[in-house]
């Protein structure tokens, strides 16, 4: 997703964020972004863990059809 940005692009984004939000607000925004990302990862991993594993019986039934 972010593989095309590169170092100069990241620096530009950081400078723009610093100008728009200011140095006092930037740590709060970063903290909120980190918490949001952590919650997203936790919910996606729990969805993947809830998925039941495929058994051999299921695949044999598909082969018969």
Based on secondary structure, the structural category is mainly alpha
> What would you report as the Rg, rounded to the nearest angstrom?
22 Å
Biggest sheet, in brief? none
For the record, the CATH architecture of the domain at 1-44 stands as Up-down Bundle
Roughly how much helix do the residues carry, as a percent range?
over 70%
Shape: elongated
Q: How many strand units?
A: 0
Mean pLDDT: 80
Could you say what the CATH topology of the domain at 1-44 is called? Single alpha-helices involved in coiled-coils or other helix-helix interfaces
Number of helices: 3
Q: What is the C-level CATH assignment of the domain at 1-44? A: Mainly Alpha
Order of helices and strands: HHH
**Uncertain spans:** none
Terminal-residue CA separation: 40 Å
Strand content: under 5%
Describe the SSE topology:
Layout: H1 6-21, H2 26-50, H3 56-64
Keywords: Cell membrane, Membrane, Protein transport, Translocation, Transmembrane, Transmembrane helix, Transport
GO molecular function: protein transmembrane transporter activity
Function: Part of the twin-arginine translocation (Tat) system that transports large folded proteins containing a characteristic twin-arginine motif in their signal peptide across membranes. TatA could form the protein-conducting channel of the Tat system.
């Amino acid at each position: 997703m972010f593989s095309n940005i590169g170092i100069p692009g990241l620096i530009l984004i950081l400078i723009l964020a610093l100008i728009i939000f200011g140095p006092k607000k930037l740590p709060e925004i970063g903290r909120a972004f980190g918490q949001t990302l952590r919650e997203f990862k936790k919910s996606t991993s729990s969805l993947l863990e809830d998925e039941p594993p495929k058994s051999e019986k299921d695949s044999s039934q598909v082969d018969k059809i």
